[in-house]
Specification:
The structure is a single chain. This protein is an alpha+beta fold. It contains 12 helices and 8 strands. The protein has a 5-stranded mixed beta sheet with strand order 2-4-5-7-6, covered by helices on one side. It has a 3-stranded antiparallel beta sheet with strand order 1-3-8. A hairpin with a 2-residue loop joins strand 6 and strand 7.
Length: 348
């Protein structure tokens, strides 16, 4: 029977879901919402094709599915968004509850519309709803699994390329240069260097405090200033930074290193690195700029760091995050924006 076949398909998709990492997506995010809509409508079209006879029959079957699908999906997504705090803390139980909520919503909508429209039978509604929830969960788990290698790559890049070996040697030489004249500053520099590498070697699995990222960036620039002296000028414009904001780990430091490496080192005169961070309309906006000396300096740039950060923004925030770079008025700029997320949101 068609119903038995549908139930077997649901079990197969659900089995695949249970074998992948669990992650509760942010359905208020436009990208996540769009994929949920596309998944459910594509599934409705597949059901219509399997049930319809000819184009007219397929169209009629698809409309019968949509009559129940659209209001049920709207109610279900509303429930998922409103219960997001609890669902994020529920592990695998979250998707079981989500499926139950979706099933109750779909059956309630079907019962309400049955007197006015030609709606699918109850068994087909159950199979369709559970399949849709399972496919959405599978999509979320795939994105969650895709994020882990990117985070590992970010940490390895920080150790192997972004914090280059000669940065360590240069920092130690700079400390030796002031060891006798300013032993207190040399001691502080060694502590900053140890703190910097301690953070970089830590596992990074979730969003971190923006204040910690700023502190990490300051440590890095303080160490570089020992070597570059008055050639390195830094302007922090961070008065509008919310103290509870969360950001992806290892976000600022590699961009600051690029700014120093490409904007300050080639310059024979003082060069300004400008760092601007603020909250605007529910978004965190970051802009880092440095003098531009052309693409021939230092071999044209470290594109791996930029590409990795862009990828992690996409994986963390989907279409809600953005990364652009340009050259304007003799300065190279990178601009990032992503949703303002608090510590409470990260714990939900």
């Amino acid at each position: 029977m068609e119903t038995d076949s549908s139930i077997r398909q649901v079990r197969g998709v659900a089995r695949a879901v249970t074998q992948t990492p669990v992650a509760w997506p942010d359905f208020a995010n436009f990208g996540v919402l769009l994929r949920a809509l596309l998944i459910t409508h594509a599934l409705a079209l597949v059901c219509a094709v399997s049930a319809g006879d000819g184009w007219v029959g397929i169209g009629a079957a698809f409309m019968a599915q949509i009559v129940v699908l659209e209001p049920a999906l709207a109610a279900c997504l509303g429930l998922w968004v409103s219960c997001a705090r609890w669902l994020r803390r529920s592990g695998r139980l979250a998707w079981i509850v989500a499926g139950a909520l979706g099933l109750v919503g779909a059956l309630a909508v079907r019962a309400a519309l049955a007197a006015y429209f030609d709606v699918p039978d109850t068994a087909r509604v159950i199979a369709f709803t559970l399949s849709a929830v399972a496919l959405i969960a599978y999509d979320a788990s795939l994105r969650h699994a895709a994020l882990a290698p990117s985070l590992s790559q970010a940490r390895l890049m920080a150790l192997n390329s972004r914090i280059r070996p000669h940065f360590l040697f240069n920092s130690l030489n700079a400390v030796l240069g002031i060891l006798r004249s300013d032993p207190r500053r040399a001691e502080t520099a060694l502590e900053e260097l140890a703190d910097l590498y301690r953070v970089l070697m830590r596992d990074h699995d979730d969003l971190v405090r923006l204040s910690d990222e700023i502190a990490l960036g300051r440590r890095y620039l303080d160490l570089e200033k020992l070597r570059l002296g008055e050639r390195l000028l830094v302007l922090w414009e961070i008065d509008a930074v919310p103290p509870d904001a969360r950001v992806p780990p290892l976000l600022l430091q590699p961009l600051l290193e690029n700014a120093v490496y490409h904007g300050v080192e080639p310059s024979s005169i003082p060069a300004l690195v400008r760092v601007g961070i603020r909250r605007a309309a529910g978004q965190i906006e970051i802009e880092i700029s440095n003098p531009y000396h052309g693409v021939t300096v230092h071999g044209g740039g470290q594109h791996m760091a930029v590409a990795n950060i862009r990828e992690r923004l996409r994986l963390y925030f989907d279409l809600a995050g953005g990364f652009v770079q340009d050259v304007r008025d003799g300065r190279y700029r990178v601009q990032l924006h992503f949703p303002y997320t608090t510590g409470a949101d990260a714990d939900e």
